[in-house]
């Protein structure tokens, strides 16, 4: 039995249209399924929590973007008893990039119904102010999170999504946020005991997957199946250089530039001198000054197109 969790609002309403085009295929093929359309923010988390409360084995298929994947993962009660399928319909779709999920919804559905391979994916966990939140792709503090915060309230996103230019949303908002953000002094401590303080920090992100922000390959070597997080800190650079590095990051050509520090770790503690925006998978978290980020001991089985754990 497949359980579909559908965000009809993903990519400004495309989610509903895609589901309406796929559901007849399920009926024609006689696939046993049940489907839930999310009604509002965090509904996907509640659904996933309730559906997996029985402790049984489940296959949950997410139709939506990175935000919906994040919400579903946040609700699953028994990660190792759950298999995740994915039909990418978001604006950013960073979760889809590493595993190379097909962008064609029909192909993505075929993959779910006849799984060619599985990947056991790590799940990130961020702890802040007595709360914790899971993530699939990345969690970050500073500029990247400020962009996510702005994207949620931006009127640009629906307009650009309608023009099939959804990916441009993040690039344009990034330029806007670069102008307003005040760089902070941030200390990053890794699980090997090494600590480094960065003055004028633009952002620090802990990445399970290589891409965030709709295609910026900030940590090219990040692999969601290797039990490690890759951390990028960007500090001490001018706004102009930041724009230049963002362009380079789309091709992963930024990694050797001064002002960029990338490390691999299992756990990270981040402390900032001022409260900064935080995000998990592009979903905003309130301003924070400190947080701990690690990987959960349990993994989540994901239906993938091929031998994904060796992909980059
Ligand atoms: N029925 C709904 N109406 C409005 N918003 C919803 C609804 N259901 C879920 N949401 C919210 O939509 C937000 C964005 O969803 P999603 O990530 O799937 O799409 P996206 O923003 O287009 O893609 P991406 O995250 O890849 O850029 C999530 O924060 C989710 O809480």
TrEMBL record:
Gene3D superfamilies: 2.60.200.40, Probable inorganic polyphosphate/atp-NAD kinase, domain 1. Signal peptide: none annotated. Residues 1-129 form the DAGKc domain. SUPFAM superfamilies: NAD kinase/diacylglycerol kinase-like. Keywords: ATP-binding, Kinase, Lipid biosynthesis, Lipid metabolism, Nucleotide-binding, Phospholipid biosynthesis, Phospholipid metabolism, Transferase. Belongs to the diacylglycerol/lipid kinase family. PANTHER family: SPHINGOSINE KINASE, SPHINGOSINE KINASE RELATED PROTEIN. This is Diacylglycerol kinase family lipid kinase.
